[in-house]
Amino acid sequence: MEEGNLAELGLDVKACALGQASAALMAAQAVGMTVSELEKARDRLAAYLAGEGDDLEFWPGLAILAPARAYPARHASIRLSFEAVAEAARMAAA
Questions:
Q1: Residue 94 — very low, low, confident or very high, per pLDDT cuts 50/70/90?
Q2: 61: which of 14, 25, 45, 77 fits an S-S bond (Cβ 3.0–4.6 Å)?
């Protein structure tokens, strides 16, 4: 973390195609964000997947994963990278 913002990010993704796509989309935007912004994105994605909203505009590119919303068994793989980056940023800031 640099001045409260994510300064750099590295990935070693070993996941299904949805997990890989989600990780790539997350990584494309996460650098420069604050812990709060990353946590908010994580929470909004989880809410979307749970059917608690229809907005994916908060993160560029996520609309490509919209068809997977109908498959709850795939939600964890889509959420994983967002959960991981939010947690890592929170720990780094502490």
A1: confident
A2: 25
